[in-house]
Design a protein that fits this description.
single chain; 305 residues; mainly beta; 2 domains; five-stranded antiparallel beta sheet; 3 helices; 6% helix; DUF868 family protein; DUF868_pln
């Protein structure tokens, strides 16, 4: 499958919110939202969060953490990239135990990782919500600090206020089900609060339908998915432009389970460009923190029946 960002022209967008858009077409509807129906959706099988860390020297690193569903057996996996090296050779760094520390050489730096997930608490996602911390150092400088055990983190690893890192993407994989929900912070919003995102698909009549909710509000609905299997729509979240793109071609025409891709990407303005993750360390535009949420959904056999 091609990268979803390559499927659309840079400025071929439609602003779709009930308080800022005009009448919609019969293909994409912008509607006031009734209460979100109670539905059952599977939790993600794994979650990968990517952060851009800036060292005091000005050098930047991409750090990706993959949390897996069977975490206690499989552990946390961490990837590193400096824009030239795709990942830590000979492969990603796996942290199999619930707590510990490790160090290694990467891109002419000494990388140290400390973590404690002993008391980590989880909801429907394999990523912990509380009771944990993960700390990454580069040449003894703290460049990434995650978790909520603040007193221990600050005592052992220094004040987090001076650490420069930003969340740039979140990738979740789902298997089965007809609805995919997650909770995400869109970097750059004025409130920087977490938002509930729900993507609901299904229905055979009329070729199926796709509905996107944010915080219980129906943002838009796409009908006749068998014909409109790729598209994009722009919504507003806390006054921030968020491009919403979908590619569900493989659900209808692919072999096997078929994988659909949904992406919600923040946009600094109407004139900003779509970007690929491997380029976010380059150029002035990369300095404007933008964030993308990607959902890979593998179709269940009864999705459009």
């Amino acid at each position: 499958m091609r990268s979803i960002a390559t499927c659309y022209r840079e400025h071929a967008i439609r602003v779709s919110d009930s308080y800022c858009s005009g009448p919609s077409s019969n293909r994409v509807q912008s509607l006031k939202s009734p209460p979100v129906p109670s539905i059952s959706s599977p939790g993600p099988a794994d979650v990968t969060s990517t952060y851009r860390a800036r060292l005091s020297s000005g050098k930047q690193l991409l750090i990706s953490l993959t949390w897996q569903a069977s975490f206690l057996r499989q552990g946390l996996i961490i990837y590193f990239s400096d824009g030239t090296t795709r990942e830590l050779p000979p492969g990603p760094k796996r942290l199999p135990k619930s707590n510990g520390s490790t160090s290694f050489q990467f891109s002419d730096m000494t990388i140290e990782i400390s973590w404690d997930l002993t008391l980590a608490r989880f909801d429907s996602s394999p990523e912990p919500v509380s009771g944990f911390f993960v700390v990454v150092r580069a040449d003894s400088e703290v460049i990434l600090l995650l978790g909520d055990t603040c007193s221990e983190k600050k005592k052992d690893h220094g004040d987090e206020d001076g650490i420069e890192f930003a969340s740039v993407s979140r990738n979740e994989r789902f298997f089965g089900g007809n609805a995919y929900s997650t909770r995400v912070i869109f970097e750059g919003t004025s409130s920087a609060k977490a938002h509930d995102v729900l993507i609901k698909c299904g229905g055979q009549e009329g070729g199926g339908a796709l509905t996107v909710f944010v915080d219980g509000k129906k943002m838009f609905r796409v009908q006749r998915l068998r014909w409109n299997f790729r598209g994009n729509q722009t919504i507003f979240v806390d006054g921030l432009l968020v491009d919403t793109m979908w590619d569900i071609h493989d659900w209808f025409f692919g072999e096997g389970m078929g994988c659909a891709v949904f992406m919600l990407r923040t946009r600094s303005g109407f004139d900003s460009r779509l970007w690929l993750e491997e380029k976010i360390l380059q150029g002035n535009e990369a300095a404007k923190t933008q964030f993308s949420l990607l959902i890979h959904a593998y179709k269940s056999s009864s999705l459009f029946t």
